[in-house]
Design goal:
Layout lengths: L1 E3 L4 H10 L11 E3 L12 E2 L16 H15 L14 E2 L4 H4 L9 H4 L12 E5 L12 E2 L2 E2 L8 E12 L5 E12 L12 E5 L7 H6 L2 H7 L15 E4 L2 E4 L13 H8 L16 H9 L11 H13 L2 E2 L7 H12 L10 E2 L5 E2 L5 E2 L6 E2 L7 E3 L22 E3 L9 H5 L13 H6 L6 H9 L2 H12 L2
């Protein structure tokens, strides 16, 4: 099957305005779509069903951009050094590289289940967020507990998790189980923090699918979606606005839409302890015990570990990744599952079709990617915040962590494109922000608040229809 995709005139103009070097952009006129597939992200769609489905560049990446793509890929995947001359990992960190947590640009299996909390060998594939119960940060720790450290330095703390299991029954008699996590932190590097004054929430990595499309998305479309409500289902999304780079912007990325960009600089700083132009201070600066330990090792902080140019290459790499096409779209069970997806009103939050702005996206150093402009995309998300329920009222996802305008019980609708390939790419099916859901059914049944109506509609379906809906999700 061949689908013709014509670039709009304004996008053609964008090539002229923003091609600031001799790189030859691939102007795709025709896309050959294999039978059984359908486009997910216009000209950035890739037709792969392998471990590299998330980690392959789009066809328009050529010339100098292709060189930069591979430079960014190299820095993304490879561990930073443990000394200033080697690249500046640590002194404390959560992951030793982007790829340690985002294996194959996906989500590395979290050590929450395999190790009962913090892992060994330099990574845990998760972030541990903490605040006081009044919302303030702890002076000795900031917003994240870094559970890994270079040799000779003590990690800030270690996470332990236990699970409470509860069995439920669908109306037709089939049983399912939910596992509620309980988090404790031990081995604090400084004085222990009383559990009575601690909120702790854990985030496993997001899939890096469609990052460029998210950055190029038409913000007006998202803001228009925020004006819609569906009172009969209790659904009313809201936009998150955050101040980033000195400017109030619409939040699009992150579990709570708490960022306007892909936070490459923040990732290097907070996740890996690598200083850069936006975050030139060590993440442990001001922590007396940590300063003493690193000083004893002869570590001095007088240079930036990662340059702006290197970080923009990583930004380009992430935004240039292709988005896997939907698969098995002609399968009768998949088609039935799609009907059930709509019948359960999942599409009211997991919006199927959006568009990117004509001019594409802009990287962190100002380079524009016009190839991402003027595209019809299918992320299955409205990128808005929704109340997902408070645990004091039963099953819900309130983590008591505020991000911008997002309260503890509010979460950005997770984009579903690529979700069906997660097991193939990363070998697991842990879902939701902290991986508590071990499969699609559990992920659906954890929905509360604005997701309550869809959860109940799903629960009341005959088993064959529930199974078909899951098969549809596996096709995304």
């Amino acid at each position: 099957m061949k689908i013709t995709v014509k670039f709009a005139a304004v996008l053609t103009a964008a090539f002229v305005l923003y091609s600031c070097d001799s790189d030859e952009g691939l102007e795709i006129e025709d896309i050959n779509v294999p039978d059984g597939y359908t486009l997910s992200a216009g000209t950035s769609t890739v037709f792969l069903k392998s471990t590299y489905a998330f980690d392959t560049h789009a066809d328009w990446v050529t010339g100098k951009n292709l060189t930069r793509f591979y430079n960014g890929d190299d820095l993304y995947d490879n561990p930073l050094g443990i000394s200033r001359s080697q690249g500046g990992l640590g002194p404390v960190y959560a992951g030793y590289s982007c790829g340690s947590c985002h294996r194959n640009a996906g989500r590395t299996e979290p050590t929450l289940w395999s190790a009962g909390g913090s892992g060994n060998y330099g990574f845990s594939s998760m972030l541990i967020y903490i605040t006081r119960k009044n919302g303030a940060f702890f002076q000795d720790y900031g917003r994240v507990v870094h559970d890994q450290a270079i040799i000779g330095v003590k990690p800030e703390g270690k996470l332990k998790v236990t699970y409470d299991y509860q069995t439920f029954t669908f109306p037709d008699g089939e049983k399912y189980e939910l596992a509620k996590p309980n988090y404790t932190i031990t081995e604090w590097y400084a004085d222990s923090i009383s559990p009575d004054d601690l909120f702790c929430t854990v985030r496993i990595p997001l899939r890096h699918v469609g990052m460029g499309q998210i950055m190029a998305i038409d913000r007006r479309e998202i803001e228009q979606l925020a004006t819609k409500s569906y009172p009969e289902y209790g659904i009313s999304g809201k936009a998150n606005y955050i101040k980033e780079r000195g400017k109030l912007q619409l939040g699009l990325s992150g579990n709570k839409a708490q960022h306007a960009d892909l936070t490459v600089e923040l990732g290097f700083s907070s996740d890996m302890g690598a200083t850069n132009s936006r975050f030139p201070e060590e993440i442990c600066e001001g922590q007396a015990q940590m300063a003493q330990a690193t000083s004893a090792m002869g570590i001095t902080y007088n240079q930036l570990d990662v340059t702006s140019e290197q970080m923009e290459d990583v930004d380009l790499y992430m935004q240039s990744l292709g988005v896997p096409a939907r698969r098995n779209v002609n399968d009768l069970t998949v088609k039935r599952g799609e009907e059930m997806f709509y019948a359960a009103k999942c599409h009211l939050c997991h919006v199927t079709t959006l568009h990117t702005q004509p001019q594409g996206s802009v990287l962190l150093n100002g380079t524009r990617l016009p190839w991402l402009g003027g595209q019809t995309i299918h992320p299955y998300s409205d990128f808005l915040l929704h109340d997902m329920g408070s645990e004091i009222m039963g099953v819900g996802l309130n983590d008591n962590y505020v991000s911008g305008l997002a309260r503890g019980n509010e979460w950005r609708t997770t984009p579903l494109w690529g979700v069906g390939l997660q097991h193939l790419v990363n070998g697991h099916t842990y879902f939701l922000h902290d991986g508590r859901a071990r499969n699609f059914v559990e992920a659906i049944m954890w929905h509360g608040g604005e997701g309550e109506a869809s959860k109940n509609l799903f629960a009341k379906m005959p088993k064959a229809d529930r199974d078909a809906l899951i098969t549809f999700l596996e096709s995304l």
